[in-house]
Amino acid sequence: MRFLALTYAEFLVGSHYRRLRLGVVPEDPGGMVLYTNHSNGLVDGQLSLFASQRSPSILAKASLFKIPILNWLIRQVGAIPIYRQKDNVDMALNEDSFREIHAHLLSGGALVIYPEGESRLGHTLRPFKTGAARMALGAQAKCDDAGKASIRFQPVAFVYEEQETFASRAHLWVGKSIDAQDFVAAYRLEERETVRKVTQTLRERLAETMVIARDPESFAAAVQIDRVLHAQPAGAPPRLKALAAEWDALREEIPDEVEPFRERLAQWTRSLQQLGLEGYDLTGPRYKRSPAGRLSALGTLIVTALLIPLWLPPVALARAIASIGRSTPDKLVTVTLISSSVFVPLWTIALAWWNPVGWGFGLSFLVTFLWALIALWWVRRAGRPRPLRRAWTRLGLQGFAQRVDSLWVEKQHLDERWRSLTGEDRLANVSWSSPR
Questions:
Q1: What percent of the chain has pLDDT above 90?
Q2: Secondary structure class of 425 (helix, strand, coil)
Q3: What is the pLDDT of residue 433?
Q4: What angle do CA 88, 89, 92 make, to 5 degrees?
Q5: What is the average per-residue pLDDT within 125-133?
Q6: In this structure, what CATH number is given to the domain that contains residue 111?
Q7: How far, in Å, CA of 346 to CA of 318, rounded?
Q8: Which of 21, 41, 179, 180 can bridge 330 by disulfide, Cβ–Cβ 3.0-4.6 Å?
C-alpha cells in the first residue's frame, strides 16, 4: 500500500512540476531529520518524499488525518500526527507521537518536518518552532545511551520558479547537514537553552540554501534575470539567491533606474510567454527548428487536441473549487491537484460509460485512462512551462522567426543594461548551448 501511496504522490507532483535537484542527501547510517521551508502546502510534503533515497515519514498536523483521501495517503506514507494547541485538542496526545518519533529515529529512520509550521506563501524564512530540535536531541541522547549511530539534521530548500504554472520547475537544493551529536552534552546540562540555540542554527543553515527575496516581485525579477544571463536552468538556485539579494539592494540604492529596467524585463518575459518560450531558449540570433523538433511539436499539438476532452472539464472544475474563497497560490495548487486526482478518474468513468465506440465498459475505461496518462506525459516531456504555445512556435507555421529574433536582440540589451546597473561583466564564462 505504501508503494501505491508513493506512486500517487509522484503522479500528483509530477503532473504539475518538473523536479531538478542540486546536491545529494548523504545516505549515512543513523537517523535523519530532513527539514525544509514550507510555502506550497501539501506539495511540499509530497516533494519531501523524494528528496532522499530513504522512505521518510512526515510530521503532519492532526487535522489533516480527518480529510478524506488525504487521510489515506498520509497514513500510507507513514505520517505521524502532531497535535496543536490552537486546534483545541488534548496536547497530551503528543506524548505518543514523540515516543513514535524517537523510536523511528533510533531505528535509523528518516523524518521530514517543517519548522516554520503552517504553509505560507513567500520567499522569506519565518521563525522556527523548537519541535525539530527537541525531537532530534531527545532521540540523540537515547542513541548515546544505546550506543547507536548519531542523528543528523538535513536542510533541503524548495524553490518553485512559477508556483501556479503547469510544467514549471521545482528545485530541491540540498544543504550541509548538522550532527546532533555535537549538541548532546550541552543538551543534558541546559535543555531549554540548547534547544533554542540548535533551532537558531537550523534556521541559519537552511537560510544558506534558500532563495530569500523581499517580495514576489523581487523573486520574479531574479528568475527573469537568470534567464537573461544563462542558457539553462540546471543549478539555478544559488544564482537566484545572489540575484534576488542584488536586486533588493539595487531597489534600495537606485530605485529610479531599477524600475524602468523591471518594466522592460517584465515586458520581455510576457512576450516570450506568449510564444511558450523562456530566456533560456534564446541562445543565438536564430531560434533553431530542426525537422525532429517540428515533428515533435506537431505531435504535441495533435495529442493536446485529443487530451482536451479528457482533462479540461475535470481540471477546470477542480480549479474552480480551489479558487473558492480567494485561495493563495499554495492552497490553490494543493486543492487543484487533490481535486483533479478525484475528478479525472470520475470523468474517465463517465466517458467510458457513455462509450460511443461500442466497446465494453472495462475496455473503454482502460483505453481512455491510459490515453489520458500517455497524453499528459507527452505534453510535459518538453520540460518547459506552456508546452502548447511552445509547440506552436517550434512548428513555425505563423512566421514567429522575426519575433523570436527581436526577443534575442532584446535579451542582449537587457544583459548589457543589467551589467551597467551592477557594474559587473557577467558575460564571462557563460556557456551557450542549443535550445531544447
A1: 38
A2: coil
A3: 35
A4: 135
A5: 93
A6: 3.40.1130.10
A7: 12
A8: 41
User: By C-alpha distance, which of 237, 202, 32, 48 is closest to 130?
Assistant: 202
Q: Kindly state whether residues 6 and 152 are assigned to the same domain.
A: yes
Q: Is 30 left (phi over 0), alpha (psi -120 to 50) or beta?
A: left
Cα–Cα dist 171/159, whole Å: 5
Q: In the chain, how many domains are there? A: 3
The half-sphere exposure of 180 on its side-chain side, counting CA atoms within 13 A, is 31
Same domain, 169 and 70: yes
SS3 call for 129: coil
225 and 138 in one domain?
no
* Helical H segments across 15-93, by residue range: 41-48, 70-76
Q: Which of 58-62, 208-212, 352-356, 387-391 has the lowest mean pLDDT?
A: 352-356
In angstroms, rounded to a whole number, what is the distance separating the alpha carbons of residues 40 and 225? 23
Is 435 among the domain residues?
A: no
CB-based contacts of 408, cutoff 8 Å, min separation 6? 282, 284, 285, 287
* 58 neighbors 78 (Cβ within 8 angstroms): yes
Q: Which residue range forms the structural domain that includes residue 274?
A: 216-287+400-422
Q: What share of the chain has pLDDT > 70, as a percent?
A: 91
Among residues 378, 395, 412, which one ends one of the domains?
A: 395
Judgement on whether residues 180 and 309 belong to the same structural domain of the protein: no
Q: CB neighbours of 356 closer than 8 A, spacing ≥ 6?
A: none
Going by C-alpha positions, the residue among 12, 14, 422, 22 that lies closest to residue 233 is 22
Q: Is 35 in the same domain as 99? A: yes
- Per-residue pLDDT tens digits for 67-80: 777 777 778 777 88
**pTM across the whole model:** 0.85
What cell numbers appear for 63 in the block? Answer: 487535522
What separation in angstroms does the CA of 135 have from each of 31, 85, 195, 348?
A: 11, 18, 10, 45
Is 139 part of any domain? Answer: yes
Quick one: pLDDT at residue 115? 93
Clarify whether residues 311 and 234 are in a common domain.
no
